[in-house]
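Annex B. Sample input.
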Amino acid sequence: MAELVGRSGTSAATIRFYLTAGLLPPPVRAASNRFLYDERHVEVVRLVRLLRERRGLSLESIGRVLPELLPDLVGRPTGGNFRADMWGEVLARGAGLSSSTRDRLVDEGTTLFSHRGYAEVTVDDVCRATDIAKGSFYRYFGSKEELFLAVAGAVAGRVADAFSCVATGTGLGPEKSVGVLATAMSPHLAVVLDLTSLAAQRRPGYAIALRSLTASVGDAVRAALASDCADEVVARAVFEAVRRVVTGMPDPTSPQLKAVALPT
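Annex B, continued. Sample output.
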């Protein structure tokens, strides 16, 4: 596992989550507490992260397209047959259709869901914002729900990037990191809260998307703090972001950190 973590650039917790979600081939059990991984696992972990970060696909969607994208890699006992020059092709196939149009839908969807919330946004709203016909929308997403899950993946990447650009290498520590992460999360708080609410209602796919979002943000926190308190920081940051809305309190982050532009 340690070698897989190092080669894929992904935390052990995220890799175990991918295994639980059925996205990775099962490892070989070498002993009661020892499992062996191979090149397949390195490649698939990298691909899942690429589809999450570059295409904004939900883990549920990735689970559907992986067998088509990697039929040989997933089924072989050893890897090495997935060449570096295939990444671009895989991204295009994973998106299914024009990446620029799909990206616009996710970008505009992110803006609308972040500002107005899930319930107040319609497919017509997204189509008007992207200037595409409603029929064209359904070539890329089967429903508003499917778009929202893709937006949740995009928000995870944006929040993680916004936090990392401020916190990495600054030695903030857990306490100040809570405020920085709350600031990074605030522009997309409606998406985080809606995702949490829908997951609590046991709507299919939402619990997986929520775990994926928190895992991605948690990875950024772990990388910045090099500590085991990432899950606590993420949970406290959500409450801090909500507290600021409820109380109308100004952002308590230091002026130096406020000066760093956070992506929205």
